[in-house]
Design goal:
It is built from two helices and two strands; from the N terminus they run αβαβ.
Length: 74
């Protein structure tokens, strides 16, 4: 993906000597899960893959939290 490659290039430019790059994604849905939740996960995953394709050590950390503290705030 072109945009993911561009983002990976920018990350490498800013931190060229990193031993390992960590991409993180997490969602805490308010209500039902929907396609908008997927965007955060997909963006991080594609950038992580682009870093790996460029020969960098990279991993994706994903966290899921189904408890939304603000759900009951009115």
């Amino acid at each position: 993906m072109y945009w993911a490659d561009k983002l990976a290039d920018e990350v490498i430019r800013r931190k060229p000597d990193k031993e390992e790059y960590v991409c993180a994604a997490g969602i805490s849905p308010s209500g039902s899960v929907h396609i908008g939740n997927f965007r955060d996960i997909a963006t991080s995953w594609f950038v992580c893959r682009a870093l790996q394709k460029k020969g960098k050590k990279a991993k994706l950390l994903f966290s899921w939290d189904e408890f939304d503290r603000l759900r009951k705030v009115k």
